[in-house]
TrEMBL record:
<dbReference type="InterPro" id="IPR000859">
    <property type="entry name" value="CUB_dom"/>
</dbReference>
<keyword id="KW-0645">Protease</keyword>
<feature type="disulfide bond">
    <location>
        <begin position="589"/>
        <end position="604"/>
    </location>
</feature>
<keyword id="KW-0677">Repeat</keyword>
<feature type="transmembrane region" description="Helical">
    <location>
        <begin position="57"/>
        <end position="81"/>
    </location>
</feature>
<dbReference type="InterPro" id="IPR002172">
    <property type="entry name" value="LDrepeatLR_classA_rpt"/>
</dbReference>
<dbReference type="InterPro" id="IPR033116">
    <property type="entry name" value="TRYPSIN_SER"/>
</dbReference>
<dbReference type="InterPro" id="IPR009003">
    <property type="entry name" value="Peptidase_S1_PA"/>
</dbReference>
<keyword id="KW-1015">Disulfide bond</keyword>
<dbReference type="InterPro" id="IPR000082">
    <property type="entry name" value="SEA_dom"/>
</dbReference>
<feature type="active site" description="Charge relay system">
    <location>
        <position position="713"/>
    </location>
</feature>
<feature type="disulfide bond">
    <location>
        <begin position="462"/>
        <end position="480"/>
    </location>
</feature>
<feature type="domain" description="Peptidase S1">
    <location>
        <begin position="617"/>
        <end position="856"/>
    </location>
</feature>
<feature type="disulfide bond">
    <location>
        <begin position="527"/>
        <end position="539"/>
    </location>
</feature>
<dbReference type="InterPro" id="IPR036055">
    <property type="entry name" value="LDL_receptor-like_sf"/>
</dbReference>
<feature type="domain" description="CUB">
    <location>
        <begin position="343"/>
        <end position="450"/>
    </location>
</feature>
<dbReference type="InterPro" id="IPR036364">
    <property type="entry name" value="SEA_dom_sf"/>
</dbReference>
Length: 857
């Protein structure tokens, strides 16, 4: 073919009309035609035109016509060479059934002669079918048979086509229609001893098409009765998996069995850093329509990664790109009789429980389970779903078009917090459906019978059927998911009425949080028009905002003025290492360069967990392994866990000063009394290889720590020797002294402290989500107790809080890009988790300079 570049006309350099774009020179004689043409266009100039004579007109028309023809020709050539003649490659994967063939074990071996013989026949039949369709046959390039499995015989194939761009859609359509197994077409297949049924073709999984790989690895494994078979990525665990790899594991079991597959270790490149992933298919063809899951990143060992097939086959695929090599996975599988996937049934009695198949493992694809629940005649029944995970990629929220639970014609899907569905009779039917692709861990539920006249004895019944403590009715908090506990309330004298009718505690007025939902609790307290409301409540003229001066007195008018700008330094501006100041709120470690010397992004190897966030356990408060990798447990000689702490570098911890005060003639600030455990999850499992323990070299309490008020409740501890960072041991980021935390912000507190007031400590590290409470309100809740170094954080309805034994541990604030900062240190509280008694935390930002001074961190 001619080099296309040659077709483009390039005038010699300097030629007029080329370098000057659309400006035509009116002085050039031979350009008259253009010049005049431009002038002639308006028809109003017809008279002028006549005067110039008919000869000229003919010339002009001819030139215009020739130009037109030329451009048409050019257009055609471009279309022909660029689109019509350009071929695109199309790949399809699919399978078909051979009803008049019997499966033989040798078919599992793709190098056997029997395999080759049958493959040849199937290939021939496929090509015949393609050739009978003018949208398909002419473009076929290659077809291969990749595997056979039981079910008479099912053949898995791939086909490659090369088709002109403009015919590509027609090919897609024709291949999609092959699905509907046009019998006529299939019988045309010339080969008489091969009958083809249930032929389907899918465009190849786009995930595979976009991957570029040059290393392929294939494995075929057959489950052995009563034995667990394991396999892993090449090199595991001694070396990372290869780059640019395309590995396939064909897993098989005996006919009439299904496969249970579990990834026991999974550590692949994080999903946001690259394109490495593992996909599992409920088929031997890697087609999206039968994909069960796509996995990337790293899962901690306690996460359930068990999958069950619908047939006796599974395909596991690993695709890696050129960069980022990680350890990979180890997996095991075994076969079980197909009938064990049977689910549903009849449930009777006054209460009981049931769950999706293999819960908490992933449910299999292609199941329908129906539970018919009947409770005694005189009672009604309700079902409470305690955990509910039916998520499918690509399904619009709430549409429930794929997997779902159906009760009383209503469908439930996605992720849901615990919810209740009740029936007005003594019967209820629950139907669970999973489609061909993508599975999740499913649900577990209990059913209860209740007296229809008194569904919640001694309690308030939400309209959803849920029972809540009567004291929660009209308390200002939404306890029922439908808010029915806060409707039709008479406000008490301690409450005010929102515009929407809700009653809320008076001290929530003007606290900067929209408690009413319609913001009416914050409206009366707004500044007059044209004014800005400072965080401390002061009103200043709008014009004074972001003028580089602290007009509020707390810097809040200068805190968030768009992107970082260098401004005169103030108490509230972030100071870069080069002593310039920027006026962006919390610029440190936000992955954006704000200081001209980039010092705001220095030392930011902190505050990111290595495992992907996966805990979807609603209501439970156990942490996952590695979820809070900076959490430290401080053990006191002879007594065990006594306080928490946070790792801020490989040899420094931050904790609370009060953990080390002198008491009963014991000097707890003696470092030899303490041992620090890093990477710990379960207090009973301190010898776990992931745990690193250290003795303490030095304990430095803040010199201003006040034993009575708990002001300056902070201490730093030096480890006897540095720890090694691992997935379970990562330091937390320290906030800059100017770091701001708005009231209402959600934060996390973690520790092994008591799980209730006067209770005993937890074995598994606990976590709780609590909220920043504004200082003014906190002063009214905990009068005469707070200093500038303290912040109140909690949930005012009560029930969620830190407690004895959590002291010294971290209060974590999640900032930009999911990076976590040590916002506070557990310090004290009035009891634990009481209503309107938030916990008090040492305000780390206010003591940032002291930490730096003592530790250099
Ligand atoms: N001082 C307690 C300790 O030593 C911590 C109390 C925290 N209390 C609370 N309600 N937030 O463990």
């Amino acid at each position: 073919m001619k080099d296309k570049k040659m077709d483009i006309y390039r005038p010699p350099p300097g030629a007029k009309g080329y370098d000057s774009g659309l400006k035509y020179s009116s002085k050039t004689e031979d350009m008259n035609g253009f010049e005049e043409g431009v002038e002639f266009l308006p028809t109003m100039n017809a008279k002028k035109l006549e005067k110039r004579g008919p000869k000229r007109l003919v010339l002009v028309v001819a030139v215009v016509l020739i130009c037109l023809l030329l451009s048409l020709l050019a257009g055609f050539l471009v279309w022909h060479f660029k689109y019509r003649n350009v071929h695109v490659d199309k790949h399809y994967n699919g399978h078909l059934r051979l009803p008049n063939h019997q499966f033989m074990d040798v078919y599992e071996n793709s190098s056997s002669t029997e395999f080759a013989a049958l493959a040849r026949k199937v290939k021939g039949a496929l090509i015949d079918i393609y050739n009978s369709n003018p949208d398909v046959g002419p473009f076929h390039k290659k077809t291969g048979i990749s595997a056979f499995s039981e079910g008479s015989v099912i053949a898995y194939y791939w086909s490659q086509f090369s088709v002109p761009q403009y015919k590509a859609d027609a090919l897609d359509e024709a291949m999609a229609k092959i699905k509907s197994s046009n019998q006529m077409l299939l019988h045309k297949a010339r080969n008489p001893d091969i009958r083809v049924e249930s032929l389907v073709a899918f465009p190849s999984d786009p995930d595979i098409m976009t991957a570029s790989w040059d290393r392929s690895c294939r494995y075929a494994l057959h489950a052995k009765e009563g034995v667990i078979t394991s396999f892993s990525t090449p090199g595991f665990p001694n070396s990372p998996y290869p780059s640019n790899a395309h590995c396939l594991w064909v897993l098989r079991a005996d006919a009439d069995s299904v496969i249970s597959l579990t990834f026991t270790t999974f550590d692949v490149e994080p999903c946001d850093l690259g394109n490495d992933f593992v996909k599992v298919y409920d088929s031997l063809s890697p087609v999206e329509a039968h994909a069960l899951v796509k996995l990337c990143g790293s899962f901690n060992p306690s996460y359930n990664l068990t999958f069950v097939s619908s047939q006796n086959i599974l395909l596991v695929m690993l695709i890696t790109d050129a960069k980022g090599r990680y350890p990979g996975f180890k997996a095991e599988f075994f076969q079980m009789p197909k009938k064990t996937t049977a689910c549903g049934g009849t449930l009777t009695g006054t209460s009981g429980s049931f769950s999706s198949p293999y819960y908490p493992g992933h449910y299999p694809p292609r199941v329908d389970c129906v539970w018919n629940i009947t409770v005694p005649q005189d009672r009604n029944v309700k079902v409470r779903f305690k955990e509910f995970f039916l998520m499918e990629p690509g399904v619009p929220m709430g549409s429930c078009t794929k997997d779902y639970v159906e009760i009383n014609k209503e469908k439930y899907c996605d992720l849901r917090q615990s919810f209740v569905v009740s029936s007005k009779t003594n019967q209820i039917t629950v139907h669970f459906h999973s489609d061909l692709s993508f599975v999740d861990t499913g649900f577990w539920a209990e059913f209860l019978s209740y007296d229809s006249n008194d569904p919640c004895p001694g309690k308030f019944t939400c309209q959803t059927g849920r029972c809540i403590d009567s004291a929660r009715r009209c308390d200002g908090w939404l306890d029922c998911t439908d808010a029915s506990d806060e409707k039709n309330c008479n406000c008490t004298e301690k409450q005010f009425r929102c515009q929407n009718g809700w009653c809320k505690p008076k001290y929530w007025l003007c606290d900067g949080v929209n408690d009413c939902g319609d913001n009416s609790d914050e409206q009366q307290c707004q500044c007059p028009a044209g004014n800005f409301k400072c965080s401390n409540g002061k009103c200043i003229p709008e014009a004074q905002k972001c003028n580089g001066r602290d007009d509020c007195g707390d810097g809040s008018d200068e805190g968030s003025c768009g992107s970082a700008v260098t401004v005169p330094c103030q108490e509230y501006t972030y100071k870069c290492r080069n002593n310039q100041c920027v006026n962006k709120r919390n610029p440190e470690c936000d992955d954006e360069k704000d200081c001209s010397d980039n010092s705001d992004e220095d030392n930011c190897n902190c505050g990111k967990r290595a495992y992907r966030k996966q805990s979807r356990i609603v209501g439970g408060q156990d942490s996952d392994v590695g979820e809070w990798p900076w959490q430290v447990s401080l053990h006191l000689k002879g007594e065990g866990h006594a306080c928490g702490a946070s790792l801020i570098s490989n040899k420094w911890l931050v904790s609370a000063a009060h953990c080390f005060r002198q008491e009963n003639f014991v000097r707890y600030n003696d470092p030899t009394l303490w041992t620090a455990y890093m990477g710990l999850h379960d207090q009973r499992d301190r010898t776990n290889a992931k745990v690193q323990s250290r003795s303490i070299k030095a304990i430095i309490q803040h010199p201003f720590f006040n034993d009575y008020t708990y002001d300056y409740d902070i201490a730093v501890l030096e480890l006897s020797s540095p720890v090694t960072f691992t997935k379970e041991i990562v330091p937390i980021c320290l906030p800059d002294a100017t770091h701001e935390i708005p009231s209402g912000k959600a934060m996390w507190v973690t520790g092994w402290g008591a799980t209730q007031e006067d209770g005993i400590g937890a074995m598994i590290l606990q976590k709780a989500e609590i909220r920043m409470i504004n200082q003014t309100m906190c002063n009214t809740l905990l009068p005469n107790q707070l200093t500038k170094r303290m912040m109140c954080v909690g949930i005012l309805t009560g029930g969620i809080d830190a407690c004895q034994g959590d002291s010294g541990g971290p209060l974590i604030s999640i900032e930009a890009n999911n990076r976590m900062f040590l916002a506070g240190i557990v310090s004290f509280g009035d009891g634990c988790a009481r209503r309107n008694k938030p916990g008090v935390y040492t305000w780390v930002a206010k003591l940032r300079n002291w930490i730096k001074e003592k530790t250099g961190v």
